[in-house]
Amino acid sequence: MSLVGRLEDLSLSDIFQILSVGRKTGTLVVKGSKGTALIVFKNGLIVRAETDDIEGNMGDILVQSGLIKDTIMYLALEVKKELPAKPIAEILHDLGSVRPEMLEKAAKKRIERVICRLLSWEDGDFQFELDDLELQSKTELPDLGWEVSRGLSPEYLLMEGARVQDEMSQQSYIPSEDLSVSDSGDADEEGGWEEPLDSPSAERRDITALKSLTQELRFPNSASEITLLILRFASDMFLRGVLFMIGKGEMVGLGQFGLEIERADEMVRATVLNVDKSPFFKKIVTEQLTYKGALEKDEVTARLVEVLGGVWPRDTVIFPIVAEGRVVAFLYCDNSSDAGPVGETEGLEIFINHAGLALEKSLLQRRIQDMETDRGTA
Q1: How far apart are CA 177 and CA 166, in angstroms?
Q2: Contact 190/163 with Cβ under 8 angstroms?
């Protein structure tokens, strides 16, 4: 499989969705007016990312974090002069100057920064080659970073990158290279709260998120971008959530955030639940109203809890997403079993109503395009 095109025609989020859902392994190279970027996928997860649109390299992150001294970095740079194709992180590892786990943390920080920067690119040509990891040598990047042993979820990276961009636009984000905190980019370690659930700013974070994301929802590039915006909004308010698409009596997992289970994205996408066997979910489909409270027990909700990790949640919120007069998706959210009760959700409910309208528009545009294509081939 070869995927070639322009960012103006296929957004980064769409590209990631294709590669993630298909569990593809290969190298994606993007070249635009702002520079060149390389992203390596393994089984749909991102294991390496670099760009020359960001100053410095992995070694600089380690120096700034106090994990290596300037003299060690100088020695590594001298070695790189003799071996220009060898990444600085690999040189430091071979010199025994830094532990592998520290390189892993630094690499995850670097990957997050690269994806965040790529989200600001407005143009560029991209090429993905399946199972071709030799493309790395064709990018002419000065350094190729470090390959993490456990891949990062593309959906998580997109959400985090968009979140950082929002915070930067509000001039409240301060970049940090502190590697002492636990990383949260693993496929089974995403999500987390930055402040107590009962703090004043946390109570109305739904309104804050509504103001910053509604503008983006006005001009989505695709249905996949709409779903990412929904998950991104919800991840500001809840510890974990799962988005299900509804069709023909079934709930099919589409995306998630915050699930502390192995290969969370794959587990969710492999989940299919029978709505007709759940009086609880059938009622929500019929009434088309947000549900907030305890998760009622039946065989379908029991299976859902099993997917979530096996521990029954204290409180849940389920948002039906309505398009063309019917429920086309569910957003399930909770704060796990040991967290406090859910807070105000009016902002998210308003956003989801707008998301339903955006989905209707997206579906209509697709039908129009299909009709035009049919006319052209007739």
Answers
A1: 19
A2: no
CA atoms within 13 A on the CB side of 47: 17
Taking only the tens place, the pLDDT of each residue in 160-170 is 888 777 777 66
**Assigned token pair, 323:** 């398009």
200-203, long-range: CB within 8 Å, 24+ apart, which pairs? Answer: 202/343, 203/343, 203/344
Strands 45-51 and 35-42: antiparallel
- Give per-residue pLDDT as tens, 39-88: 999 988 999 999 999 988 888 888 888 888 888 888 888 888 888 888 99
Would the pLDDT of 23 be above 80? yes
DSSP one-letter code for 336: T
- Cross-strand partners of 323: 326
Pick from 282, 358, 280: nearest CA to 324: 358
Amino acid at 172: S
> Using an 8 Å Cβ cutoff, are 25 and 41 in contact?
yes
Global pTM value: 0.59
- Cβ atoms of 226 and 362 within 8 Å: the answer is yes
Assess contact for 294 and 278: CB atoms under 8 A: no
Those residues whose C-beta lies under 8 Å from the C-beta of residue 96, and which sit 6 or more positions away, are: none
All structural domains of the chain, each given as residue ranges with its CATH number in brackets, are: 2-169 (no CATH), 200-367 (3.30.450.40)
Nearest residue to 59 via CA among 181, 183, 185, 143:
143
DSSP E strands in the chain: the ranges are 2-6, 26-32, 35-42, 45-51, 125-130, 240-247, 250-257, 272-274, 291-293, 316-323, 326-334
Task: Give residue for tokens 């630094």.
Answer: 106
- Tokens describing residue 42: 């393994």
H/E stretch holding 144: none
Cα 142 from Cα 121, distance rounded (Å): 20
The secondary structure of residue 36, as a DSSP letter, is E
Give 3-state DSSP helix, strand, coil % of the chain, rounded to 5: 45, 20, 35
